[in-house]
Amino acid sequence: MDTKNLPHVIIIGAGFAGLETARGLANSPVRITLIDKRNHHLFQPLLYQVAIAGLLPSQIASPVRTIFRKQKNLTFQMGEVTEINLKEKFVKLEGSAIAYDYLVIAAGGRTNFFGFDTLEQHGLQIKDLETAVKTRNHLLSMFEQASHEGDAEKRKAMLTFVIVGGGPTGVEAAGALAELISHVMRKDYSKLNLKEA
């Protein structure tokens, strides 16, 4: 079957919406190009587990090419879209232009800090694998530093964690952090008074 004459659908984003759109078009007479700046699909609802050292990054990230290995009408292209031309129907990514007949923008969202500039500048986010690992490393580092700190006030500050946001991620992160402290850190740092945490 000659696929060159089939309508070309570009899907920007390999998150939940992008994947479901691509799967929904699996048996349709179209050519699909799925574009994402990362080559893996991230199961974002479990990012907090990576941030509190409950899961490894590889446990919540799946290679996009593996997910769509059997879908013959789809190709994946890793890259970041730098321009969308709706009038002439093409997208640019890192210099190359790709024409389309239909465009699906499923690029995800950005964190809204609601005007809290200090939080945006100094807070740790849990938005992707990189930020979840950074948060995890900071959390573990604070316990390590606190275990060697003689000054009680400094130690208490090191073991004070603030979770901003009362949505599902914030609530799950708070519960998981409490569990980490009471079940794991209490054993690993037995000399610390974790009532301070």
Number of strands: 9
Uncertain runs are none
Do you know the CATH architecture of the largest domain?
Answer: 3-Layer(bba) Sandwich
Strand content: 15-25%
Instruction: Give the count of structural domains.
Output: 2
- Tertiary shape: elongated
Main sheet overview: 4 strands, parallel
- What is the straight-line distance between the termini? 63 Å
Counting helices, strands and paired strands, the structural category is alpha/beta
Total DSSP helices = 7
> In what order do the strands lie side by side in the largest sheet?
5-2-1-9
Helix and strand pattern: EHEEHEHEEEEEHHHH
CATH topology of the largest domain: FAD/NAD(P)-binding domain
Question: How does the SSE layout of this entry go?
Answer:
Elements: E1 8-12, H1 16-24, E2 31-36, E3 40-42, H2 47-51, E4 61-63, H3 64-67, E5 74-78, E6 81-85, E7 90-93, E8 96-99, E9 102-105, H4 117-122, H5 129-148, H6 152-158, H7 168-188
Parallel strand pairs: 1-2, 1-9, 2-5
Antiparallel strand pairs: 3-4, 6-7, 7-8
Helix pairs in contact: 5-6
